[in-house]
Specification:
The chain is α+β, with helices and mostly antiparallel strands and 145 residues long. The protein is 29% helix and 23% strand. The longest helix is centred in the middle third of the chain and has 17 residues.
Length: 145
């Protein structure tokens, strides 16, 4: 007699998938930043925030911050971001850090993506540095302050 598959007692978080990926112009840095957030969410990243730093920063127009759950997850996030953005004509200019360090920074020109382990994100608390920047996107698992 065939066995029935086990059913989990806790339902999985449902992640909405867009019907079609929006067109992203490399010149539209806000669209690139929001696209990065979408790629991170689709790749199961947590606590995704997008900061608009255009009025305050010379380094980048937007900062994207997210949390991965393990070293392999951080590697996968980097790979998915790089491949997805390359398909939109946005190239990775530089990457710094590695999954083993708990913090990786991906430089897509005017969009910088910070991928953290949860403990490293709490330790460095870079959100405190950007508290005056407007948050233009929050993933559904982030509480509004």
């Amino acid at each position: 007699m065939p066995r029935k598959p086990a059913v989990s007692a806790t339902p999985a978080v449902r992640r909405a998938k867009p019907a079609d990926a929006p067109a992203v112009s490399p010149a539209d840095t806000e669209a690139v930043a929001k696209f990065c957030a979408g790629v991170c969410w689709d790749s199961k990243a947590e606590e995704i925030l997008v900061y608009d730093a255009r009025a305050n920063s010379v380094l980048a127009d937007f900062y994207v911050v997210c949390t991965g759950t393990s070293d392999p997850h951080l590697r996968a996030l980097r790979q998915h971001l790089e491949e997805s953005l390359k398909g939109k004509g946005v190239r990775l200019r530089h990457a710094s850090g590695n999954p083993g360090s708990g913090w990786t920074i991906l430089d897509f020109g005017d969009v910088l993506v910070h991928v953290f382990h949860a403990d490293q994100r709490r330790y460095y608390n870079i959100e405190e540095l950007w508290k005056e920047y407007p948050v233009i996107h929050r993933s559904p698992d982030v509480k509004n302050d």
